[in-house]
Amino acid sequence: MNAFISQLSFISSITDIDQLQKYTSDSSGFTSALPAIVLRPASTEEVAACIKACVAHQKNYTIQGGLTGLAGGACPDEGDVVISLERMNQIEEIDTVGGTAIVQAGVVLEQLQQAVLEQGWYFPLDLGARGSCQIGGNIATNAGGNKVFRYGTTRELVLGLEVVLPDGTVLNMLNRVIKNNTGLDLKHLFIGTEGRYGVITRACVRLFPKPAAVYSALAALKSFADVTVLLKEARASMAELSSFEVMWDNYLKTAAQVANKAIPFDGQYPIYVLLEAEGAAEGLDTKLTTFLEQQLESGLLQDVIIPQSEEQAKGLWHIRDASGETLRIMKHFVAFDIGIPLKHMQEFIEKTEQALQAKYPHAMNLFFGHLGDGNLHLLTGKLTEEELLPVEDLVYQLTALYGGSITAEHGIGRIKKPFLHYSRSPEQIKLMQKIRELINSDNLLNKARVVE
Amino acid sequence: MNAFISQLSFISSITDIDQLQKYTSDSSGFTSALPAIVLRPASTEEVAACIKACVAHQKNYTIQGGLTGLAGGACPDEGDVVISLERMNQIEEIDTVGGTAIVQAGVVLEQLQQAVLEQGWYFPLDLGARGSCQIGGNIATNAGGNKVFRYGTTRELVLGLEVVLPDGTVLNMLNRVIKNNTGLDLKHLFIGTEGRYGVITRACVRLFPKPAAVYSALAALKSFADVTVLLKEARASMAELSSFEVMWDNYLKTAAQVANKAIPFDGQYPIYVLLEAEGAAEGLDTKLTTFLEQQLESGLLQDVIIPQSEEQAKGLWHIRDASGETLRIMKHFVAFDIGIPLKHMQEFIEKTEQALQAKYPHAMNLFFGHLGDGNLHLLTGKLTEEELLPVEDLVYQLTALYGGSITAEHGIGRIKKPFLHYSRSPEQIKLMQKIRELINSDNLLNKARVVE
User: Fold this and answer.
1) What pLDDT, on a 0 to 100 scale, did the predictor assign at position A4?
2) In this predicted structure, what is the pLDDT of residue A32?
3) Residue A120: inside a domain, yes or no?
4) Which of A282, A450, B191, B245 could form a disulfide with B183 if both were Cys (CB 3.0 to 4.6 A apart)?
5) CB-based contacts of A164: which residues, under 8 Å, 6+ apart?
């Protein structure tokens, strides 16, 4: 390790055990281990130098961003070299004509959101960890969030990337144009692959004109079938629709209680939808209100709350966003993040709840999700530690049965690696491995994540 | 060849020379050659059998769809085996709850558009060749069209694929959910890669609710800078904006003349924008009209035509779509399809026009394009045959200088293969080749396209 350190003496590094603690784990609760050293390169060239040194000394290395991941992907093994991108934190360019930005991988999401807003533009990726997650990590995990429905996942927001390959080659693919059909679009090798094929150092992202107005409403419905009808009607009626979040009754009640909020409706309904529309100021509130009134009159909606202030809207979102707080009273728990085709959703939920209640009658099962995208969250707890793995296996088996995805937005990382086969066929896994062998051939980079 | 044919006797095949003529070329004008045989498999298993036979007999094979490509990708070499997907023409499922469709690769685009419309849904991919292009070819070339601006390219419309690999393995990736973060998204190896890595046999595509209303308008402006301002304003004001097509004055005049239409405005302006908005019926016409009137009052627009009938709107689109007819009077010509960052567009056009006029003063240069996506079309002609290659080289050099893409939607195919290096770095080309060697290792499949 001494020869290794002296080779990289020009790069800001950390070896002090107290300081290293910060780099041992992400937000997933994955069992953490102390790295040997944290390298903090400040440029693409320094990242390449770090990688070349790891190869020369055959050291396993783990890439870290903001450490907010939920799949254990950023957790090092004991003695790993950690390469943290935190010092690559410059927004290099905001193009206010074309609506693009060039950012370094270590830029914190909220910093980018704010910087482009100041220029009259909007970066629509948004998630709870916005204050500490980094754009490089968002891209490596293809982060989702509440607005995927309108703007796409992170993948759709990335025009180009700069990546350092595991052999130290810098791949400059900082494309700035929306349409580029010059053969294999290599950036997709690095988006959502959690650093298994290379290290993202810079990105060119798409911006959108800043929306002048945002309005929300909470609707109560009598069945999931009615929710799918509402979704289609809302999409057809409002191109401005930006979120379509569904909460089943037990989630709403528990989350409201935990968040110290009153339950919004007087009556009780089986299922609720939190809608959001964003766009031009003129007429959007009327448009949303008119639409909801029509759906109420037709009988599709049982009740609806249209907030009369920003404060009241925030209160509704607080309930939706209280899943983190809710989990605190559910330990040990599993927080699922799955994708299920809408037409199978109701049946999947019924079957899953029955199976869980039969085997784990002491646990609560709370359902909610970004249903506009078929993304369902399920919180199951309290469980004993021994019950965690069998509960995961049970839910992922059912997910596979209904043609779903075992992770819609959080990624595979280390935690879901044993379950990958429920979403990907042996032929797919083999091809993923062959490409890993081709590009990350000595398997030093982010070993033991996603796929061998 | 006899042993080869007898092995595949169960598959509908063509060896008659007259009938083979139909399979010699696509719409690109690339020098054509007669294949030895055309195989027309009707199922994924038959496609796999065809591929295995080609491998066993070490025969080069070319995949064909609707033969409407503009880059020569579907043109066989002399004596090639052609595998045509034309008999895989079934729409297998339209999911009216989730808004997805499962289609075989040989389904004609217009057939899919119509079938989903009848179920109240909308497939927004649209291009001139809709009546004969096939969805497999659309995906393999990542087709663009007029509505990319709102709905994305074909890539964004594909949720999942089924592909047969060059070793005969069937890769079933018919994912139906929007969010699926289970590691490397393998479908991107096959989208826009023009059949170099596998043969697309089936796809799951995204549908949108059928828009109730579509409105267009033609605006006249005084500069390209004003066009970029209009684009941002229009995006911010109308989430319904679905097309933003720009025509420079010389294109508008020439195309109107060729299409036998009157020039729409009394005055003459340097540049025009054809806008289209689609969405809910209620209020959309007023919204578009109000927006345009405001831009007229502010002085951004010099004049505007808001069609009073569908007929009149079609007339405006006819001029925009008359590029094919315009080319007929320009032979020999080069029809460019490039991507340029918006902030460099005006300078790129000026420099390119100057350079072309200096060297080829006898040729016309007509500019237009899907400017909402930074996609510029340029028609240059009449040229002599000898001038074609140097003209391409000149324009692609300038494209590279401004960080553009040498093909925004048509693809590389055979025709643009010599120019790939203008848009892709040596490191990128090397990685594309290494992946080609990994997956299409004996290089029998679609040889001599895109990349070695």
Assistant:
1) 85
2) 83
3) yes
4) A450
5) A44, A47, A48, A51, A170, A171, A198, A199, A201
Is B293 part of a structural domain of the chain?
yes
Examine residue A12 and state whether it is found in any structural domain, yes or no.
yes
Last residue of a domain, one of B323, B357, B385: B323
Closest CA to A111 of A96, A125, A97: A125
Smallest Cα distance from B442 to chain A, Å: 16
3-class DSSP assignment, residue A251? helix
Kindly state whether A428 is in contact with chain B, defined as any CB-CB distance less than 8 angstroms.
Answer: yes
A213 contacts A287 by C-beta, under 8 angstroms? no
Determine whether the interchain pair A451/B193 forms a contact, defined as Cβ–Cβ distance below 8 Å. Answer: no
Does the beta-carbon distance from A408 to B179 stay under 8 Å? yes
CA distances from A311 to A216, B361, B398, B442 (A): 11, 65, 53, 64
B144 to A373: CB separation less than 8 angstroms, yes or no: no
Mutation site, B121, B165, B178, B181, interface A, largest A CB count within 10 A: B181
DSSP designation for A264: S
Question: In terms of domains, do A97 and A198 share one?
Answer: yes
Quick one: tokens of B383? 């040229």
Does residue A426 fall inside a structural domain? no
Q: Total domain count for chain B?
A: 4
Whether the predicted pLDDT of B9 surpasses 80: no
Which chain B residues touch A137 with a CB distance below 8 Å?
Answer: none
Domain boundary among A55, A84, A113: A84
Which are the contacts of A141, defined by CB distance < 8 A and separation ≥ 6? A69, A71, A73, A154, A192, A194, A409, A410, A411, B181
Question: Touching check for A409 and chain B: CB below 8 Å?
Answer: yes
Name the 3-class secondary structure at A53. helix
Q: A232 and A269 in one domain?
A: yes
Mean pLDDT throughout B197-206? 98
The interface pTM score, or ipTM, of the predicted complex is 0.97
Judge whether B251 and B368 are in contact, CB under 8 Å. yes
Residue B362, token pair as written in the block: 């006898």
Of B343, B373, B425, the CB nearest to A178: B373
B441 band by pLDDT with thresholds 50, 70 and 90: very high
Q: What is the CA radius of gyration of chain B?
A: 23
CATH number of the domain encompassing residue B291? 3.30.70.2190
Question: Beta strands A364-370 and B364-370: pairing type?
Answer: unpaired
Which CATH number characterizes residue A6's domain? 3.30.43.10
Interface of B with A in 292-351 (CB under 8 A): 339-343
- The answer to whether residues A289 and A338 belong to one domain is no
Q: Are residues A178 and A259 in the same domain?
A: no
**Residues A205 and A97 occupy one common structural domain:** yes
- For residues A55 and A112, state if they share a domain: no
| pLDDT per position as a tens digit, B147-159 | 998 999 999 999 9
Enclosing domain of residue A114: 91-209
pLDDT tens-digit map of B362-384? 999 999 999 888 999 999 999 99
Q: List pLDDT tens digits, range B77-132.
A: 999 999 999 999 999 999 999 999 999 999 999 999 999 999 999 999 999 999 99
Rounded to a whole number of angstroms, the distance from the CA of B30 to the nearest CA of chain A is: 18
CATH of residue A384's domain is 3.30.70.2740
Please enumerate in sequence order all residues whose Cβ is within 8 A of that of A234, keeping only pairs 6 or more positions apart, or say none: A241, A244, A275, A291
Is residue A96 over pLDDT 80? yes
Which string of DSSP letters, residue by residue, matches B326-375? HHHTS-SEEEEEEE--HHHHHHHHHHHHHHHHHH-TTSEEEEEEEGGGTE
> How close B357 gets to chain A, by Cα (Å)?
27
Q: How far is A375 from chain B (nearest CA, A)?
A: 7
* C-beta of residue A335 within 8 angstroms of C-beta of residue A415: no
Of all residues in chain A, the one with the smallest CA distance to B209 is A236
A235–B209 C-beta distance less than 8 A: yes
Q: Work out the mean pLDDT of chain B and round it to a whole number.
A: 95
